[in-house]
Write a structure and sequence with these properties.
Strands 2-8-7-6-5-3-4 form a 7-stranded mixed sheet, sandwiched between helices. The chain is globular. By secondary structure, the protein is of the alpha/beta class.
Length: 404
């Protein structure tokens, strides 16, 4: 059983702050400070360019990929770290479409994270082969798979809706897509580190995700990509970067893809960011994922019941946007409120940090590694005070910042 009171001590949390935004950016692991300082001083500083060999910088994308792979149920050697999530979405989708050359439909949903759809739109435009993207409501995806049938090339979904926290049934949708011969790509940005994922057991084809949310790798931390071992030597990387080459330092004029997951590498590894991620992943070595999920559900339920018990009569239009059934939810709770942006700014001003997503979603992430029952009580009490006294209606809380 994981001791979450102990894991909380491993993070640098500001005094007086209740941090409910780890679903957007995880807090700083204390050990990351020393690890990054050591990387700067002892590796970059002392070793200079020899750090690529002496400090093992070039091998880190695979090493860290396998550590993340354990959290998503991936076989060793099937996950690699590097580049951004948008790049990895593009890679995965381009490769999947190439493996289904006679099909023209990419199926997603209208709750998918916009950048995934942007990347798909750009790829479709550049291919110019008549592909189209369909985005039904999340609850209609299964029916759409059936209706599209053998013209479905790729099902591309984010497992947990970034706005509401609604969770797709990964296993069922993979089976349905495979039944019509399609490939499936999962964006695990709001799944990896939030609960146990099993890409092997569910027979997933490809998966991508970021490491700066629940995995606490820091702002700009690199993304990861998973390719099922049965497909690893079939995928053709659309972004044929030099580190995906079979022999990068042979400097051949022609591209020759590496073996297995290595072919999904693109650019130079972000060494300093990987040092922070390495320290963050050390924490996960002591975490039982079933215990994490159970505690996450407990905290989410406590928050929902607390807010509805104290705020429903104060602000009737503050309504639950997340599924009420915990099994249908990720590790976040969202409420709709017409003045959600202002209310969130009022919360942040009082030391309870969540975030806002247009048009009216107030998001709260519940990460048991550093959030406990006392934090939930404080968040409920603060939100209740804001609603009871209309504190959100101050002019300074209505001015929009660049990041919401």
């Amino acid at each position: 059983m994981t001791d979450f009171s102990a894991t909380k001590q491993l993070f640098a949390l500001p005094e007086g702050v209740t941090y409910l935004d780890g679903n957007s950016l995880g807090p700083l692991p204390i050990a990351a400070q020393d690890r990054m300082a050591s990387c700067l001083r002892d590796e970059w500083g002392d070793m200079l360019i020899t750090g690529w060999n002496k400090a093992g910088w070039m091998d880190q994308p695979r090493i860290l990929g396998d550590r993340i792979g354990k959290l998503i149920g991936a076989a060793t050697g099937s996950t690699v770290v590097g580049d951004t999530l948008s790049i990895k979405v593009y890679q995965a989708l381009a490769s999947a479409l190439e493996m289904r050359p006679d099909r023209r439909v990419i199926l997603s949903d209208n709750g998918n994270f916009p950048t995934d759809l942007y990347m798909a739109e750009g790829l479709v435009r550049s291919l110019g082969q008549g592909h189209r993207i369909e985005t039904p409501a999340p609850e209609d995806v299964a029916a759409s798979i059936t209706s599209i049938g053998d013209d479905l090339a790729v099902l591309m979904l984010t497992e947990v809706d970034y706005r509401t926290g609604r969770r797709h049934d990964m296993a069922a949708l993979i089976r349905a897509a495979h039944d019509v011969g399609a490939l499936v790509i999962w964006d695990l940005a709001h799944s990896a580190g939030a609960f146990a994922v099993d890409v092997t057991g569910t027979n997933a084809d490809l998966a991508v995700g970021c490491t700066y949310k629940y995995l606490n790798g820091g702002p700009g931390a690199p993304a990861f990509i998973y390719v099922a071992p049965r497909l690893a030597d079939q995928v053709q990387p659309a972004l044929s970067g030099w580190l995906g080459h079979d022999a990068p330092f042979a400097f051949d004029p022609d591209y020759r893809p590496g073996t297995g997951i290595d072919r999904m590498r693109v650019g130079t590894p972000p060494v300093l960011q990987m040092a922070a991620l390495e320290a963050a992943l050390d924490i996960w070595d002591q975490v039982d994922m079933d215990a994490l999920r159970a505690q996450s559900v407990k905290l989410c339920e406590q928050f929902i019941m607390g807010v509805e018990a104290t705020c429903s009569h104060l602000a009737p239009d503050l309504t639950l946007a997340s599924p009420r059934d915990a099994a249908m939810r990720g590790s976040q709770v969202s409420f709709r409120f017409e003045h959600g942006y202002a209310a969130m700014q009022a919360l942040i001003a009082r030391g309870v940090i969540g975030d806002f997503r247009a048009p009216d979603i107030m998001r709260f992430g519940f990460t048991p590694l550093y959030i406990d029952e006392g934090d939930v009580d404080r968040a409920v009490e603060t939100l209740t005070d804001i609603m009871a006294n209309r504190l959100w209606d101050r002019p300074e809380y209505h001015t929009r910042s660049a990041v919401t």
